[in-house]
Amino acid sequence: MQTTPRQTKQIRSALDILHRSLGDALIGAYLHGSLVSGGLRPQSDIDLLAVVESGLSESQRHDLLAGLLRLSGRHPAAPGGARCLEVMIFRRSDLARGDYPARAEFVYGEWLRDAFEAGETPMPDRNPEYSLVIAQARRQAVPLFGPPGDELLAEVPPEQVRQAMRDALPDLLDGLHGDERNVLLTLARMWHTACTGRFVAKDVAAGWAIARLSGQRAATLDHARRAYLGEIADDWSSQDDAARRLAAHMGEQVAGSL
Questions:
Q1: Three-class SS of residue 74?
Q2: What is the pLDDT of residues 47-71, one digit of tens each?
Q3: Which of 58, 86, 110, 151 is catalytic?
Q4: Alpha-carbon torsion angle 100, 105, 109, 115, nearest 10
Q5: How is 184-204 classified by DSSP, letter by letter?
Q6: Is 4 exposed, middle or buried (0-12, 13-18, 19+ CB in 10 A)?
């Protein structure tokens, strides 16, 4: 795992915010996602997962949110600037129970910034995507604080992983417009996981999926892959129909593989 000095400073600052806001309730903090699975790409978030012993108070939620709003870079991240942060916090007792869908105590992401700046506060929530985050993080989490990730993050059974992908698929497809690159690459990664049971970086999953596509479908996914790698502009103005057709096809492949 390699980080630039600026990224290292941002990660340390995020950990400081967690410690200040959560105090003794914080029992583990981990890096996961692109940074540890294949390296940050031009628009990759810094993904953090934390585990707490108890639920967050109202003041803790406000303090944590205020700190993350200041530290996280706005989307799209400026080249060389602060990275967008994604921070998910889970209670140890919820993780130990292994309920489906998983319950998060607090979630911060740049896609929620407008709502937060309008006065909303992150509250506990259940979502199939949280089960997928836990499943992936357990296999790759790098501790910043606390014990190894697999001591706190319970194994997510394969049937829950499959159910989570099945349940997350409709909303993912509905969110295609305006988020084409991310949705297509996420579909490729879900397809790969559905077929192999493994979690890999988005560009790796895209390469795997491109080999199973042809013609325009393969070209459209390669466009998403290259945009993710920063090789071309992330411009979909002339590929709206192609993106929709590819998303529908990969959605069918995911559903058929589960």
A1: coil
A2: 999 999 999 999 999 999 999 999 9
A3: 86
A4: 110
A5: HHHHHHHHHHHHHS----HHH
A6: exposed
Write 151-159 long-range contacts (CB < 8 A, 24+). Answer: 152/27, 152/28, 152/51, 152/92, 152/95, 153/49, 153/51, 153/95, 154/95, 154/96, 154/98, 156/98, 156/102, 156/131, 156/132, 157/98, 158/197
Tokens at residue 223, please? 């466009």
Indicate the burial class of 197 (C-beta count within 10 angstroms; 0-12, 13-18, 19 or more).
exposed
> Confidence band (pLDDT; 50, 70, 90) for 3?
confident
Which ranges constitute the DSSP H helices of the chain?
5-22, 34-37, 58-71, 92-97, 113-117, 128-140, 149-152, 158-174, 180-196, 202-210, 215-228, 240-257
Please state whether the peptide bond connecting residue 101 to the residue before it is cis, i.e. omega within 30 degrees of 0.
Answer: yes
CA-CA distance, 121 to 209, in Å (whole number)? 38
Per residue in 118-149, pLDDT (tens digit) is: 999 999 999 999 999 999 999 999 999 999 99
> Both ends of the chain: CA-CA distance in Å?
32
Active site residue 53: no
**Cα separation of 206 and 192, whole Å?**
9
User: pLDDT (tens digit, 9 = 90+) per residue, 150-183?
Assistant: 999 999 999 999 999 999 999 999 999 999 999 9
CA of residue 63 relative to chain centroid, distance? 23
